[in-house]
Design goal:
It holds the Pfam family Abhydrolase_6. The chain is α/β, with parallel strands linked by helices. Helix content is about 35%, strand content about 20%. The chain has one domain: Rossmann fold. The two termini are about 25 Å apart.
Length: about 270
């Protein structure tokens, strides 16, 4: 893992390959963003010590325009680490659709810490939203987070109640679907079933406390209806904040710049 000191790290964007604890190489990028201009003339505990780690949705990667747009808006609020989950983009391995991806996120968070950031917020979309919830529940030492944002995240596994989710299950479980994923969507999907089944997002939420948690969901989400975010929020009474966004669809594509900016401001005010 590349570990430049904080002074070197903040001069400009960095690109590196991280290594997970289970031996997968993860493509990652660092943008000092607002941290670069804030150093030296902001009060202690302001933007210069904050990093936001973005966990993209299934079939995304750090080069996708919708992921880059989200990262660019968040960079107004602090440094930003983006990465491609295993099986996506230039990262190695195969996607396990939310299971071992917690190791990918842990490597990205550890990198943000190694770059000198004392406050780290994870922001995940869809599959990435389930990953940030499970990751935060594990309280992984140097890979721990100071605040968590889950956007368009499922509450439970194996959900097939909408047409998009039925198509996604076909993509993941059928050989012809995985072939389409590899060559049509640039996503390499593991052929094995989960064994054991990982802790679900809703089971993870109570374990996140007292870390601040924001749940963001659109009331027009075509993948996961509003019972999912409500179930997540109900699992953490008095701990999680729920934003149910009118007219919003699913994940990064449906998160306009104004919403992403509000998420960035929330991260600044709630981390640490």
């Amino acid at each position: 893992m590349l570990r430049p000191n904080s002074e070197t790290a903040r001069r400009g964007p960095l690109r590196t390959l991280l290594h997970t604890v289970d031996g997968v190489r993860i493509d990652a990028a660092y943008d000092p963003g607002a941290a670069a201009t804030d150093i030296g003339h902001a009060p202690s505990g302001h933007l210069e010590d904050l990093a936001i780690v973005v966990a993209h949705g299934f079939t995304g990667d750090l080069e996708r325009p919708h992921v880059r747009r989200v990262a660019d808006v968040l960079a107004r609020h602090g440094a930003v680490v983006t990465f491609s989950f295993r099986g996506h983009g230039a990262s190695g391995g195969r996607s396990t659709v939310g299971d071992r991806e917690v190791y990918d996120l842990a490597a990205a968070v550890e990198w943000a810490r190694a770059l000198g950031h004392t406050r780290v917020v994870t922001v995940g979309f869809s599959m990435g939203g389930s990953v940030v919830l499970r990751h935060a529940a594990l309280h992984l030492g140097d890979a721990g987070t100071d605040a968590v944002v889950a956007v368009s995240a499922p509450a439970r596994w194996y959900y097939r109640g909408t047409a998009p989710m039925r198509r996604l299950h076909w993509l993941v479980t059928r050989p012809e679907g995985r072939l389409l994923g590899r060559y049509g969507l640039r996503t390499r999907i593991h052929h094995r079933d989960w064994d054991p089944v990982p802790t679900s997002p809703v089971e993870s939420v109570p374990l996140i406390a007292p870390t601040p948690l924001l749940i963001v969901h659109g009331d027009q989400d075509g993948y996961f209806p509003v019972d999912h975010p409500r179930m997540l929020a109900d699992a953490a009474p008095g701990h999680a904040e729920l934003w149910l966004e009118p007219g919003m669809g699913h994940a990064e594509h449906a998160s306009d710049d104004e919403l992403v900016a509000r998420i960035g401001a929330w991260a600044v005010s709630h981390a640490g």
